[in-house]
Amino acid sequence: MSPDSVTPGSVRSAAEVNEQIRALWRRAAGSLSAQERAEYELLVIEWATAIRSEVVEAA
User: pTM here?
Assistant: First the structure.
């Protein structure tokens, strides 16, 4: 996944992003390459944004 493939303001839920993170770790068998690490970092940022959005909506 390139940095361009994650759209700022993504509409995916935290659960969807979390599942993609889990799938990445399963594919990587616990050891991320440099490219996978970059993908992971972007996914974590997207997940955190989704979590914040869901908390604000719930409030």
Answer: 0.75
